[in-house]
Amino acid sequence: MTRILVVEDEQHLAEGLRFNLEAEGYQVDVVETGEAALDLLLGKAQSFDIVVLDVMLPGKSGFDVVSEMRQAGQFVPTLILTARGHSDDVLKGFSSGADDYLTKPFDLAILIARIQGLLRRRDWLRPAQPVEVRNDRFVFGDKTVYFDLLELHVRDQVFPLTLMEMNVLRYLIRHEGKPVSRKAMLEEVWGLHEDTDTRAIDNFIVRLRRYIEADPTKPRHLLTVRGVGYRFVAFPSQRG
């Protein structure tokens, strides 16, 4: 049974989420603070499939929780709940390592659809016929992207990626060799509108370069296209 951790300090909302998610067949645990969430998520006794995490919490914020989870190597898919109209919350959440977001107040059907989407997303993380694709892998040089495992292997190193990091990389790989605008990435990868600040995209590229590039200051695979966005090149030595 799919197990969901709900982190929400508003008791009526937390209990409402528990009741409705259990009615959908999920097993639900509820905690009120970020500290309690981290105790469960980073402990060895508990295992969750999805985290639904409010941003505004007493003590550690939702952003802090996501960031500490990812730093500790906990990559369970995480959906953050943000205040209505606070696009900065969305961007900060993604930069912290969140995988999706929903603004308050929200429709229960939309929340359930987002949860189901996160559960399915690993099956979707497969590029459409890029160079050297083998089932759930993409190989370029001495690097292998394992879409189903959310891992990037560089020689003898293994870098776990969040769902959102993998989504960004997957999107660039699918458009290998072509310039991709920040606007397109915001809209097609994250579902954000064009008036949203694009700096979060740049932050993701910086992180991916640290994993992929031999020298992140002189990228050969994740190239900046001035005034547009970025371009992924699988085999730079084969480009003119």
What does this structure look like?
The chain has 240 residues and is an alpha/beta fold. It folds into two domains: 3-120, 3-Layer(aba) Sandwich (Rossmann fold); 125-238, Orthogonal Bundle (Arc Repressor Mutant, subunit A), CATH 1.10.10.10. The chain is 39% helix and 22% strand. The strands form three sheets. Strands 2-1-3-4-5 form a five-stranded parallel beta sheet, with helices on both faces. The protein has a five-stranded antiparallel beta sheet with strand order 6-7-8-9-10, with no helix packed on it. Helix 2 (34-42) packs parallel to helix 3 and helix 4 runs parallel beside helix 8 (199-212). The longest helix is centred in the middle third of the chain and has 17 residues, at 108-124. The protein is globular.
Write a concise keyword list for the protein shown above.
Rossmann fold; globular; single chain; 13 strands; Arc Repressor Mutant, subunit A; 5-stranded antiparallel β-sheet; 240 residues; 39% helix
Give the total of beta strands.
Answer: 13
CATH architecture of the largest domain: 3-Layer(aba) Sandwich
Distance between the termini: 52 Å
Provide the CATH topology of the largest domain. Answer: Rossmann fold
Q: Please identify the structural class as seen in this structure.
A: alpha/beta
Secondary-structure map with pairings?
Blueprint: E1 3-7, H1 11-23, E2 27-31, H2 34-42, E3 50-54, H3 62-71, E4 78-82, H4 87-96, E5 100-103, H5 108-124, E6 133-134, E7 137-140, E8 143-146, E9 151-154, E10 157-160, H6 163-174, E11 180-181, H7 182-190, H8 199-212, E12 222-225, E13 229-232
Parallel strand pairs: 1-2, 1-3, 3-4, 4-5
Antiparallel strand pairs: 6-7, 7-8, 8-9, 9-10, 11-13, 12-13
Helix pairs in contact: 2-3, 4-8
